[in-house]
Amino acid sequence: MAKRVRSLYTWSGRPGEESLEQTGWISEAKLRAWEYRIEPDRWWEFAAGPFRDRVREWRTARPDLQVPERLFVGDFETGSN
């Protein structure tokens, strides 16, 4: 059975010259287990050739789990074995 995964992005650059780079994948299960929530007003459009994704900032409700406080995660979902 395939699990649902989303693209994980890294934010870099100086103010005014910021960019997003696709750096990996994160499963829906991890986002739920680590209690990440979408920041409703924090999103950007990502484009690489024909691929398009809306990237949202997610913040954890559980900093005690020692996971990153925020992640940049794409809306586009894909299946992975």
Features:
single chain, 81 residues, mainly beta, 7% helix, 65% strand, globular
Fold topology:
Elements: E1 3-12, E2 19-27, H1 28-33, E3 36-48, E4 51-60, E5 70-80
Antiparallel strand pairs: 1-2, 1-5, 3-4, 4-5
Model description:
With 81 residues, the chain is mainly β. Helix content is 7%, strand content 65%. The chain contains one helix and five strands; from the N terminus they run E-E-H-E-E-E. A five-stranded antiparallel β-sheet has the order 2-1-5-4-3. A hairpin with a 6-residue loop joins strand 1 (3-12) and strand 2 (19-27). The radius of gyration is 13 Å and the shape is globular. The model has no long low-confidence stretch (mean pLDDT 88).
In brief:
This protein is mainly β and 81 residues long. The chain has one helix at residues 28-33; strands at 3-12, 19-27, 36-48, 51-60, 70-80.
